[in-house]
Amino acid sequence: MQEGRKTQEERREGTRRALIAAARRQFAENGYAATNTPALAAAAGVTRGALYHHFADKQALFEAVVEEEHALLALAINAAAEAEDEPGPVRALIEGGDAYLAAMQDSGRRRILLIDAPAVIEREKLDAINARFGLKTLLEGVGAAVEAGAIRDLPVMPLAQLLDALFDRAALAPSDELGDYRKAIKALIRGLKT
Amino acid sequence: MQEGRKTQEERREGTRRALIAAARRQFAENGYAATNTPALAAAAGVTRGALYHHFADKQALFEAVVEEEHALLALAINAAAEAEDEPGPVRALIEGGDAYLAAMQDSGRRRILLIDAPAVIEREKLDAINARFGLKTLLEGVGAAVEAGAIRDLPVMPLAQLLDALFDRAALAPSDELGDYRKAIKALIRGLKT
DNA sequence: TAAAAATACATACTGACTGTTGGTAACATA
DNA sequence: TATGTTACCAACAGTCAGTATGTATTTTTA
User: Fold this and answer.
1) CA distance B34 to B56
2) In angstroms, rounded to a whole number, what is the distance separating the alpha carbons of residues A150 and A192?
């Protein structure tokens, strides 16, 4: 048990990660409201003092979890996207959506990102996070499809938001109905073709 | 100050309504989490004892507010629907959606129904409420459109859910972009036509 | 390298809030 | 009018979020 010597950066990152990991587990399992900081800190192996040293309050920790979850989500989707060879812009939208749905087959992720986050994080801040991750890709996809003339010429941001809403709702569907949802989404998107 | 004599039913309904009215105001203004029962009871002109006599807990009161809000919403939409003369099933969907968006131009209503309710009320119970109100109408509309052969033959429930998601997202849009959202929704629905 | 400063954490405390309990007042029933 | 039932109130108990103050560890400075 030597090697007790750690740089501040290491200590810092270590406990931050432990806190975020424990928080992600508990928020995913019990939801934001039912998660209490004593249990959370204990699960992370630190005291509440450490939590409040690193995060302003419970909500700030939740925001950190949401950011990380968004980043992981984007990672999974991009990985799936690169496996595909370049299809047309409409197919790209549909396949991107499928990748999103696949990455959303995790009830904790759904709970955090789709159920709790909108209620806990104020609108503007959450929009900003969304804009940096998933929605950015979707926006580019829609923009490309419109510019290529592959789909009807519609305001890009609203259309991207609406497609996002479709995928979010489908992600919350019972898994045995997912196929039907995907079929309906495909029909909706294909219906936009020029 | 006579006429202090009330039947139990009157007392009961009186304080229940006072509580629900005060709760609707505070939930709408501050959100569920930031609403506390001492202030709520005071605003209703009763004590917390009365609140907990009529409702099991804070969440039960919130559920009562959500039910009432859904009922009012359905009322507004039906009123708008009866003003229209019978159009085709696709137009009916679009106009029903417009009525929904109009009825949703109330930030408190959005906060309660679209932001807080999904986080506070467990999925099954909220689905049940939804099914009894707004979604029921939408489901009928989609079913009619499919049966009439006006739109593509797709699984009805998933499609209704997806259209519902579209309108929910549009309802949360900045009001100056509402026109663009409506245009995009129209295009999406029209794209389903056979 | 010793002293000083800054950073990371721990412990203890405070105020607030939720749900409960045991009682009182108002109405209903026999 | 007596008894039961329903509506309501006041005080209490437990929990939790956030804070304040103290200590240990690493970094900087003299």
Assistant:
1) 19
2) 8
Single-letter code of the amino acid located at A175: S
The letter for the amino acid at B54 is H
As a whole number of angstroms, the distance between CA A103 and CA A79 comes to 11
In a mutational test of the A interface, the residue from B35, B183, B188 whose CB has the highest number of chain A CBs within 10 Å is B188
Is A105's pLDDT higher than 60? yes
pLDDT in tens, B33-50: 999 999 999 999 999 999
Q: What is the sign, positive or negative, of the torsion defined by CA atoms of A108, A114, A120, A123?
A: positive
> Which residues sit opposite A151 in a β-bridge?
A193
How far is residue A118's CA from residue B106's CA, in Å, rounded to a whole number?
Answer: 18
Phi first, then psi: what are they for B78, rounded to 5°?
Answer: -65, -40
- DSSP label at B115? I
User: Six-digit token pair at B66?
Assistant: 């959500």
Would you call B185 and A162 a contact, using CB atoms and an 8 Å cutoff? yes
Q: What is the pTM of this model?
A: 0.95
pLDDT of residue B10: 83
By CB atoms closer than 10 A (0-12, 13-18, 19+), residue B70 is buried
Mean pLDDT confidence for A95-104: 97
Question: pLDDT at residue B5 above 80?
Answer: no
